[in-house]
């Protein structure tokens, strides 16, 4: 079947080999990312997603913070060196989007709609996932590669301190992006009859 949207999301893949060879300016990419998040749906139109967009030294600083923090978890020097090298591949990109959810918004909805209170944190996870996917796909349409990382909560304190992030913003994911410097890994799909049921 031919569908423009499906074509885009099929080609959007995790790219680990990224670089700084991009034509787009930080200003252009910031506008792209902001619009992708703004146009992403959220429960009750809560618009609870927040983002911090890092370029240049700030982007590299973030991955340096992650590398330093991960050293505390390394079993030995060899594993520490491997982790540091992995973080360097992320720092090699051109930017990182830090995705947050605003806990005050979620709490406000819980107070206003107590019947749904237990669901709002779940729906907030849906909202941030959609915003992440939309941003990732938007970057792909610009010819950029990206991978979604999750080094929260181990770097939450450092991030909040470094960039003066409000305490009510909860870090959920990190999307690192840059020029495509290597192919995506092969992707296998499980059988449709395992995943889907259709009734007519």
Automatic annotation (TrEMBL):
<protein>
    <submittedName>
        <fullName>Nitroreductase</fullName>
    </submittedName>
</protein>
<dbReference type="Pfam" id="PF00881">
    <property type="entry name" value="Nitroreductase"/>
</dbReference>
<feature type="domain" description="Nitroreductase">
    <location>
        <begin position="9"/>
        <end position="178"/>
    </location>
</feature>
<dbReference type="GO" id="GO:0016491">
    <property type="term" value="F:oxidoreductase activity"/>
</dbReference>
<keyword id="KW-0963">Cytoplasm</keyword>
<keyword id="KW-0560">Oxidoreductase</keyword>
<dbReference type="GO" id="GO:0034599">
    <property type="term" value="P:cellular response to oxidative stress"/>
</dbReference>
<dbReference type="InterPro" id="IPR000415">
    <property type="entry name" value="Nitroreductase-like"/>
</dbReference>
<dbReference type="GO" id="GO:0005737">
    <property type="term" value="C:cytoplasm"/>
</dbReference>
<dbReference type="InterPro" id="IPR033877">
    <property type="entry name" value="Frm2/Hbn1"/>
</dbReference>
<dbReference type="InterPro" id="IPR029479">
    <property type="entry name" value="Nitroreductase"/>
</dbReference>
């Amino acid at each position: 079947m031919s569908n423009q949207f499906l074509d885009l999301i099929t080609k959007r893949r995790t790219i680990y080999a990224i670089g700084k060879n991009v034509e787009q300016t930080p200003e252009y990419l910031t506008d792209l990312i902001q619009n992708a998040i703004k146009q992403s749906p959220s429960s009750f139109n809560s618009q609870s997603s927040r983002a911090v967009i890092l370029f240049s030294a700030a982007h590299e600083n973030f991955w340096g913070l992650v590398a330093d923090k991960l050293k505390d978890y390394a079993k030995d020097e060899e594993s520490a060196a491997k982790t540091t090298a992995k973080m360097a591949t992320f720092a090699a990109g051109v930017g990182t989007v830090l995705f947050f959810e605003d806990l005050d918004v979620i709490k406000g909805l819980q107070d206003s709609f107590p019947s749904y209170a237990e669901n709002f944190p779940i729906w907030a996870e849906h909202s941030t996932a959609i915003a992440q996917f939309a941003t990732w796909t938007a970057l792909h349409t610009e010819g950029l590669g990206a991978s979604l990382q999750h080094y929260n909560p181990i770097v939450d304190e450092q991030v909040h301190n470094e960039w003066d992030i409000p305490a009510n913003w909860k870090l959920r994911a990190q999307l690192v992006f840059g020029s495509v410097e290597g192919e995506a890994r092969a992707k296998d799909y499980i059988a449709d009859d395992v995943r889907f049921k259709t009734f007519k």
